[in-house]
Amino acid sequence: MFHGLPSEDPIDHLDEFDRLCDLTKINGVSEDAIKLRLFPMSLADKAHQWEKSLPHGTITTWDECKKAFLAKFFSTGRTAKLRGEISSFIQRNNETFAEAWERFKGYTSQCPHHGFNNESLLSTLYRGCLPRYREMLDTASNGNFLNQDVDDGWQLVENIANSNGSYGEEYDRTNGARPTTRSSQTKS
């Protein structure tokens, strides 16, 4: 139950609610309809009063419901902070591409109502990457990463992150394609 208390996390509540609803399937009834019918039963106190005060018929999709819920119970300060983290994203010098990608995804999932479209997010991620990873993305895109279809861009980011996460920075081709370790570095 979500009560609308400052100590509660509305994102966690939505995630738990989504997982619970994923267990419920009814032939001929859309996922949206199930969630819209069950959501009020997951609310109590201040949150329940808020839901009851919504004008009838103003929320017709699950996405609209989530946006309204987050607009009410996700603090504007937290939203502004996470929007800032997203819009000013920069990969850290000691961070692999996979780690940077996970951090970027974390920001967007912590603030699903961030308001950025997929094209803007992809551009922000690309522009915030270290130059060697921008070159890698451009090369894999036949010259210009940002000129490709957005869905293809996300797929390429995911593929490179998965590959980068498998090997990390310690991968060294000169050492027989094995990860380097302290003992192998000191034997030279």
UniProtKB/TrEMBL annotation:
Residues 37-128 form the Retrotransposon gag domain. Residues 165-188 are annotated as: Disordered. This is Retrotransposon gag domain-containing protein. Coiled coil: none annotated. Signal peptide: none annotated. It holds the Pfam family Retrotrans_gag. Residues 177-188 have a biased composition (Polar residues). It comes from the Eukaryota. InterPro entries: Retrotrans_gag_dom.
